Amino acid sequence: MSIPALADSGLVLRDLAKSYGPVAAVRGIDLTIAPGETVALLGPNGAGKSTTIDMILGLAPPDAGSVTLFGSTPARAVADGRVGGMLQTGQLISELSVRELVAMVAALYPRALPVDEVLAVTGAERFAAQRTTKLSGGQSQRTRFAMALVANPDLLVLDEPTAALDVEGRHDFWASMSEVARQGKTILFATHYLEEADSYADRIVLMARGRVVADGAATDIKSRVGGKTIRATLPGVDLDALRSLAGVTGALRRGEAVTLACSDGDAALRSLLGTYPAARDLEVRGAGLEEAFLELVTEDEDEETAP
Fold first, then answer.
1. Residues of the domain holding 274
2. Which stretches within the chain are classed as H helix?
């Protein structure tokens, strides 16, 4: 496999590390994100996602390793307008309208997008005349998105971008982001909403305890968890009896419906129908991203604590 030149590689992290006192927040991350990729950064609280993002944006210096953005340092890439960041924290400048704030940011960059275009794409045009001190949480998030996008960056880095949005707002946000992605932008976003990563990312990077524990398409990561789940309508059957079926590792009941966790889905299905032919409304599915997330994170914790 050929390794692309740094200038063509988009985002390159090499042996990146950062500690805060005795806490190792990031421990030796190696990661390359190609131009045009949309990548989700997942992990439990304390996994090192926000610290990694801070180093990518040049807000925190690494203790070891390096960050390269399109062949430049983070500071140079940000100054050139090649990087736009949307963070969880930080207040918007007060006493300005949304339009004035986005226009002020646009004036800082050499190839900024038209302000009205950005307000329309991000959905901020509806409240563009409002002062930033009068915005709701969702409106503030849309304003931050507009501020990140107006520089016309090659790389958008988004930390929990939909955290303050309702379901409709999240849908609208990702509709806008999909349009941005179609323009060839590179997008890195951290989120706790696993369905967002599953639906919108080309690739998922899963972090735990400051390290990358999985990296690949959502389908690849889900395939690493081999178990299947069977759901069926089956009233009046004891759960212990279901747990004793071949290939079944666990059983839950909700009303007349049962859910079986399986180590061998084929064996479990044959055993279920052979023993309880009255079972109906059968559903069989592979592990979802949530199951893969939990199992891979747990595996990493177990390895870390093993003697």
1. 227-286
2. 49-56, 74-79, 98-106, 115-122, 137-149, 167-182, 194-200, 218-223, 239-243, 265-275, 289-305
Residues 175 and 216 in one domain: yes
Q: How many CA atoms lie within 13 A of 304 on its CB side?
A: 12
Distance CA 98, CA 245 (A): 61
Q: Shortest CA distance to 260 belongs to which of 280, 238, 239? A: 239
Is 37 within the bounds of a domain?
yes
- Kindly report whether the global pTM for this prediction surpasses the value 0.70: yes
Q: Is there a single domain that holds both residue 197 and residue 254?
A: no
**Where is 214: in which H helix or E strand?**
strand 211-216
Average pLDDT over all residues of the chain: 89
Same domain, 21 and 71: yes
Please tell me the distance from the alpha carbon of residue 229 to that of residue 260, in angstroms, as a whole number.
6
Check whether residue 189 and residue 66 sit in a common domain: yes
Q: Specify whether 193 is located in the same domain as 254.
A: no
Sheet strand arrangement including 155-159 = 83-86, 155-159, 186-190, 38-42, 203-208, 211-216
Which neighbouring-strand residues pair with 242?
Answer: none
Write out pLDDT tens, residues 153-167.
Answer: 999 999 989 887 888
Model confidence pLDDT, tens digit, residues 143-154? 999 999 999 999
For residue range 250-291, what is the model confidence (pLDDT) as tens digits?
888 889 999 888 888 889 999 999 999 999 999 988 777 877
Gap between the Cα atoms of 162 and 38, Å rounded: 16
**Are residues 163 and 78 part of one domain?**
yes
